[in-house]
TrEMBL record:
GO biological process, one term: endoplasmic reticulum to Golgi vesicle-mediated transport
Organism: Jaapia argillacea MUCL 33604
InterPro entries: BAP29/BAP31, BAP29/BAP31_N, Bap31/Bap29_C
Localisation per UniProt entry: Endoplasmic reticulum membrane
Family, similarity comment: Belongs to the BCAP29/BCAP31 family.
Protein name (Swiss-Prot/TrEMBL): Endoplasmic reticulum transmembrane protein
Domain BAP29/BAP31 transmembrane: 1-137
GO (cellular component) term, any one: endoplasmic reticulum membrane
Organism domain of life: Eukaryota
Length: 207
């Protein structure tokens, strides 16, 4: 395997490890910190930019490997059906070339495919984290609004109770005023009767 295909294999292995890390079950707080680091860190952004350039070269290798595979397959089919006598060494050579060309196609193709899957998975999980954050904010605001509504209902109930107590107090005061006026009237009547009785007795004594 040439050096650029070895680097492609290493890139494919790193993509597989990264994909396993992204989809691995972990606590929400840890996943949130991890994805925030990956999406906001400038060093990670530079690495991602370099990987995008490397994927362009992998795409070129994929096209070249695909072209070689078609050429080797065509040469092998032509040698089989051309009527030429072939020894074991020639057949082995064609089989090896065909195997290597197919291996290179699969290697570069899976590298490109996994890069697309990895990118899409990353942004889906990132959107999910943002959605969960928005849901938590909305839930918190809703709980605050419900608490304020409950406090408002309690205030209204207290105001109603206070108004009822005020009305009861006013009724009691009016009742006390009426009772005091009635008692004062009765006291005046008793006083007048007493004065009359006392005045009649004094008149009898003077006679």
């Amino acid at each position: 395997m040439t050096i650029y295909y070895s680097l492609t294999f290493m890139l494919l292995a790193s993509e597989m490890v990264t994909f396993c890390i992204l989809v691995a079950p972990m606590p929400y707080a840890a996943k949130k910190r991890l994805f925030r680091f990956l999406s906001e860190n400038p060093i990670v952004a530079k690495i991602a930019y370099g990987l995008k350039i490397s994927f362009i070269f992998v795409g070129i290798l994929f096209l070249d490997a695909l072209q070689r595979m078609f050429r080797v397959t065509a040469e092998s089919d032509l040698a089989k059906h051309g009527g030429q006598a072939q020894d074991v060494r020639t057949e082995t050579n064609f089989a090896a070339r065909k195997f290597y060309s197919q291996r290179n196609v699969y290697l570069t193709g899976f590298t490109l495919f996994l890069s697309l899957v990895l990118t899409r998975t990353f942004y889906i999980i990132l959107d999910l984290i943002h959605t969960q954050e928005e849901y938590a904010k909305i839930k918190q605001e809703t709980s605050k609004a419900s608490h304020q509504s409950a406090s408002g209902n309690q205030t209204v109930e207290l105001e109603k109770k206070l108004a009822t107590l005020q009305q009861s107090k006013d009724r009691d005061i009016e009742t006390l005023k009426k009772q005091a006026a009635q008692q004062a009237k009765e006291y005046d009547e008793l006083a007048e009767r007493y004065n009359r009785a006392t005045g009649e007795r004094s008149n009898k004594k003077s006679d």
